[in-house]
Amino acid sequence: MSIHAHHHPGDDAMFPESQQHQLPIPISPPPPMVATTTSIDDGYKSSILRFVLLPSQVMLILLLEFLNSFRSFGLRFVMYNYITNEFGIEDVNAGKLLGIKGFVDIAFGLAGSILVDIYGVRKISIAALSVAIVGRTLLAFGRTKGALYLALFLFSPCGDALLSVGLYKVALKKLTTPSTRPLGFALSYSTFNLAGAIADILVDKMRAGLEDLSLDSHFVGVGGVYTPIRQFIVVTWLVVVLTWIIAYCFLEDWTVIDTNDPEEDDCIDEGSDIDIGMMSAKPMVRLHILRRWFPNFDQLIRREEDEMHHPQGDATTKCRAPNYKMYRTQYTRSTGGRTSLYTCITDIFSQIAALLQLRSTWRVLVFGFASSAIAMNWTFSEMIMPPFLERRFGESIPIYTIQSINLFGCLIFPPIVGAITSGREDFSVIMPGLWIMAISPMFVAMSPNVIGACAWQVFMTTGEVLWSPRQTSWTASLAPTGSEGLFFAISSARSVMGPLTDFVMGVINQTYNSNCPECRDQYGHFCEARLNEDENNLQCASAQESCNIVLDNNQQSCPKTCLECPTWEATDPSTCWYLLLLASLVTPMCIWFYLPFLRGNYDRDYKCYGILSCSKNRLFGICGASAEMNYMHNRDGGSQLYEHVDGQYIVNESNEIGGINSFENETELTQSPGLV
């Protein structure tokens, strides 16, 4: 069985020579575009209306995305401090452990991405959550390093990793249409950042408001001391259980199409099983509420019906109201397909080879690896900033609330930015965001304190909300239909850099932000309380036990931070942040260098995809400007490409630039039986 997938800009190998190198026809400069009467007005209101007309299954996916992100973010934020404070693991060894876990996660994540294309989102989600419950149980209630290793290297990869490779992105891609996808992924981006922000606030509230909880040993398997951090991990365990219940009861595999959208991904054969089983999609928001939100809703729909029954012009010039249809996503395994294991494995590798022949795949890979340097900001935020603030400024600092600045910003602004910039070319939005995020470490490097950390989070967030959601939408739009999971896995190949980065983070902490175990107890509490005092000595204690610290009476207080620990060696923390600044600047420079290739406007023969071109317009691209080409797209009247050549505008009637078709044309992508 074969399915339809987009042929994206740059996949020139599949075009016959007769379609390449057509001569452009010079014309006068294009006149300004004049707005035409449409059934749904252009702009952000159109984006919102089209989105809320999607079925309620979209909201279910966003709910699962929220719970899944709370589980994931909640553990990632506290993991480093958790294993160093409660299991007594040194910084370098902690980096090694998390690095090894990262490599194992990548392997299981790739397997999960392949399996989701075979078995579907529902089956993989339930299976992964079942295993994740076991792994999170060991993390929450285990007391030995053996239980920790078993959770990190076996159950967490088998469960958590399968849920972290875009599983719900595949579902969201199938439940949205090309016109609603940018806003859909912007909302998804906000949803998982909302979950992370709530996790940050909650863990800080628990650190500040809860005391250690001691359970007697007769509570088999769960007895012992529960610090606020461990109590928070128990909360994430409950969230995993709740997610499993919701997924088991409500999650289904659906695909939504808009029969009035000429850019629709799927092409359904009339009379096929899918066509027969197709049904109208019930909007997620009831009509009486829509009429309240959009006072002219009835007028718009009535106008659309009049135009369909009494057309007064070319049908292609009408911007029709969406007509959403939905059907159950077909998978070979779920419909009785039988293939041997060897055949499945062979077909999977054949599918990977087919995807690697698409230029769209390489465009996403190039962007992914180029952005791995700037992604270190997120790793610093999770693995460097929490111990940096806690060790230098004490346990009372609201570490995770400061971290939540980024998450709240990514919650509020992506939908706004997505709606405002939905009509702009992708990289004209991405490039400015990369530059802003790249220079953000400068603030904490110049001022290594709480204020500097807050300023870093603010500017990092400003850049992130511009480029990261748009890059996710751009990647999803390039994914071939039917192989989304595998495409997302290949496109996330930059994650192989993650384990190496984790190891480096451990070395950086050990070198520039070392711990002071002599002044902390086995649970990570500082020995800041006076246990007893006499004329000759002063002994310090933590909230749980006495410490082997005896100070002179002249000492004003017991150590509340590592800076006050008498055996701690001071280091310059600014150094690691300057290193992050230099590394971050590599990303926008690399993206600018490969920008013509990433945009897909040129073929290989034109100065190596346009990468080696040298012009004023090429220089302007450093900030995302697209002066090389004016893309005038009018959904009412079709699309035309205007090139500025030798001082005059040129229209390419074949809609090609440099011999490459610049629009997404349907082409057959042969699928293996196991991947349909």
From TrEMBL:
One of its GO terms (cellular component) is plasma membrane. Its main location: membrane. It is found in: Cell membrane. Keywords: Cell membrane, Membrane, Transmembrane, Transmembrane helix, Transport. It is a multi-pass membrane protein. It comes from the Eukaryota. The chain crosses the membrane at residues 48-67, 148-171, 183-203, 232-251, 362-380, 400-421, 433-459, 577-597. InterPro entries: MFS, MFS_trans_sf, MFS_Transporters. This is Uncharacterized protein.
